[in-house]
Amino acid sequence: MTIRSILIANRGEIAVRIIRAAKALGIKTVQVHSAADADMLAVKLADEAVDIGPPAAAKSYLNIDTIIEAAKSAGVDAIHPGYGFLSENAAFARAVADAGMIFIGPSADAISLLGDKVAARSVAAKAGVPTVPGSDGRIDDIACARAIIEETGFPAMIKAAAGGGGRGIRIVDTMEDFERQFPLAAAEAKAAFGDGGLYIEKVITRARHVEVQILGDGENAVHCFERECSLQRRRQKVWEEAPSCRLPDDIRTALCESAVALAKSVGYTGAGTVEYLYDEDAGAFYFIEVNTRIQVEHPVTEMVTGIDLVQEMIRVAGGERLSVTQGDIVLSGHAIECRINAEDPVKGFMPGPGTVAKLVTPEGDGIRFDTFLYEGYTVPPFYDSLLGKLIVHAESREACLEKLERALAGLKIEGLATTIPLHLALCRDEAVAAGAFHTRFLEPWLETHFTPQTPAKIHEEASS
């Protein structure tokens, strides 16, 4: 089926991104929005907009019945879920199909299988992908969990089986800590995801977070190489790059091939990401999960491969085969993405929504800023703090860091606090420049390198 019209069941910068991809393909766009997002840039760019309810996400962007009704009323052929919200909700994907429309993403069955972290571990193991040592399945009994912990040793991680996005995770260092945290983790998982199931994984102390971008059409699958996502705060990604600067070629090949094997084993359709932990000391990698959607950090992959991942998702959903073979996909240079959030890094990353008094974006070859901001726009306080993503591309990582620093210095978002000073500081850090970081690097770094005086110093240096 040829897709002629799409409803975007999301908001913010990803909604703008999907609209632009759809328009490039000559596809009509319908943007849903809550009452708080009536002035959102995506609403202005779309061919049509539909109000789906009050600001609370549960009553708007997470309301399956309302979104399906909006799509039916607009007469669209397909729905793109973006990331977050309902993007990995199998019930939503099934409801879209049952309503006679196309869900732009994998099937509901694939989402169910890979969205459950325990089931995904089993799929990965069957596909020959190494997994982090831990429990073989869901654990609902603390005695079973205790036995696993005794085998894997400390530190260990208690994870929600239905979790994602870094949520529902607790790290324990002693048996006493484990005994206290296990029932709390179960209750937290139940409240957050409606499923109290848990599983156990050994903590790789100095792990790097490396993920592989996959594309599938149900019959074939390819990889678009890997991304490095180790700079994280509270398990939320802050800075991403492609390719990983510390990954040996043989590990890169094995890691990417394993992601393709996993995708083919489930007949994967659309864009997805297979996430791994890489133990640099041991030279080993381990599967952790699959994200069955487009990722926030997809632009760095687009920059180094030249593939428009969102357009590819739409084409494949419409019944086309992948437009590229594995041999067509080659790496070119290096790309880095900084997530620009409405948070004040000096004040403990306190959220700072407000009105954009002035917006100046850097321009030039290899510079991209994905955002939904415009001057005079008031950022609502009800949703994620992501304002946009600054992405730069250059022939080498060293040149990329230099270009990124200039681009960050030229990015002005006045009227609200942002994380721009944090990224400028990271650009100038020797360990970051050397690629000598891991998933536990950033938080202690913030305590010693980012003081209340840092932002003024950074901007003074940038203007000199």
TrEMBL record:
Residues 121-318 form the ATP-grasp domain. Keywords: ATP-binding, Biotin, Ligase, Nucleotide-binding. The keyword ATP-binding applies. The keyword Nucleotide-binding applies. It comes from the Bacteria. InterPro entries: ACC_Biotin_Carboxylase (IPR051602), ATP-grasp (IPR011761), BC-like_N (IPR005481), Biotin_carboxylation_dom (IPR011764), Biotin_COase_C (IPR005482), CPAse_ATP-bd (IPR005479), PreATP-grasp_dom_sf (IPR016185), Rudment_hybrid_motif (IPR011054). It catalyses: N(6)-biotinyl-L-lysyl-[protein] + hydrogencarbonate + ATP = N(6)-carboxybiotinyl-L-lysyl-[protein] + ADP + phosphate + H(+). One of its GO terms (molecular function) is biotin carboxylase activity. Its EC number is 6.3.4.14. Residues 2-447 form the Biotin carboxylation domain. It holds the Pfam family Biotin_carb_N. PANTHER family: BIOTIN CARBOXYLASE, CHLOROPLASTIC, PYRUVATE CARBOXYLASE SUBUNIT A. This protein is a component of the acetyl coenzyme A carboxylase complex; first, biotin carboxylase catalyzes the carboxylation of the carrier protein and then the transcarboxylase transfers the carboxyl group to form malonyl-CoA. This is biotin carboxylase.
